[in-house]
Amino acid sequence: MDASKKVILVTGGIKSGKSRFALDLANKFNEGRLMIATATAFDEHMRIKIRKHQEERGQDFKTVEESVHLAQAIKNVQTDTEVILVDCATMWINNLFHQFSDDESAIESQIEAFIKILSQPRANIIIVTNEVGLGIMPDNTLARRYADRLGRVNQRMAVVSDEVVMLISGIPQWVKGVSDK
To answer: Is 53 a catalytic residue?
Structure first.
């Protein structure tokens, strides 16, 4: 891994301030900012949320929308990119479930490719994800399968990340690594 390139995982609960914090981190880079947006506008709530995130980013980020093939999107990044903000892994895993349904090998293949990219980043990478291990046990098989998969992916991302930051009510707590406060 290029010692000058960092991978930072930003996690926390819903509405904990993850995206805002990750955006602030990415804005510390002077130029070459890329946002990889994984969300799909499947209902009005998501359309509003996506618009809000677009407004917060403004024109300072080039944006690539990729809901499934995240590793390939990162491979295609221009060499002058300083930072890639991936928002978010939570939606990406949801999209993998939707795209590949019960094809576990296809889902795992996408995840493996992404973890490999994180292990050898060509740019700084900031990833936003939800912490799913603090809530109640879901009451249906699909939701449990999803929470289990996301939890395992979060663990794998955390292992290869230089820093892991958890947002609690908008306050960042470094779980791994040291902040540049």
So the answer is: yes
